[in-house]
Amino acid sequence: xxxxxxxxxxxxxxxxxxxxxxxxxxxxxxxxxxxxxxxxxxxxxxxxxxxxxxxxxxxxxxxxxxxxxxxxxxxxxxxxxxxxxxxxxxxxxxxxxxxxxxxxxxxxxxxxxxxxxxxxxxxxxxxxxxxxxxxxxxxxxxxxxxxxxxxxxxxxxxxxxxxxxxxxxxxxxxxxxxxxxxxxxxxxxxxxxxxxxxxxxxxxxxxxxxxxxxxxxxxxxxxxxxxxxxxxxxxxxxxxxxxxxxxxxxxxxxxxx
Length: 257
What we know:
Blueprint: E1 2-7, H1 12-22, E2 27-33, E3 38-40, E4 43-46, E5 59-62, H2 66-79, E6 83-85, H3 92-101, E7 106-109, H4 115-131, E8 136-143, H5 153-165, E9 171-173, E10 187-194, E11 200-207, E12 212-219, H6 223-236, E13 242-244, H7 246-254
Parallel strand pairs: 1-2, 1-5, 2-4, 5-6, 6-7, 7-13, 8-10, 9-10
Antiparallel strand pairs: 3-4, 8-11, 11-12
């Protein structure tokens, strides 16, 4: 049985996690962290990770904010608590602080906890190799109207994976409204749509002269992110310090494909 601590337990993802965990018999929630302390379904909730009782153990799952993510990782490093960091919008400096924390404790980091989106990324990497620069690449991401960051962390994660596979040759282009020239061969376009209650859609278009191949992922509920976070926490439990990603968790599955 893996003990879990949820930072952001009062939010939408916190509720999704509680619902998913309640249906499992391999993990349980022993504490929560949220701005409003108290309890949720009998689970003690503290206003800050620093308010957690001494001796609290388990894997901490964070679905909050960049500042919350850093606080969770640094608390985990100081107290030997592995962390699954799911928050988006982190700066390079904040990401660097997560990596520093991973020198002392296991940190699992992904901008999107959906297993499906990470399989999509692996497929994109293979497509980059197979098309060998002959197809233009565009990414279109769609999210609900409350999302603060654009482009999404997931879109950037996809773009970074594609660019790394291509040897770093692409330049990201986010806006073409005032450009009066043909598309450059080294461009990788990223477009954002915000509206309604869209949970998260990502399309990656590989555009050739006479054909287009589109790889798509549609998140139909927040449950997919909760499932991925739980799988990551179970994967992380007992791991040595280090910086882990979805690629590490999926490695065994991908080697069979």
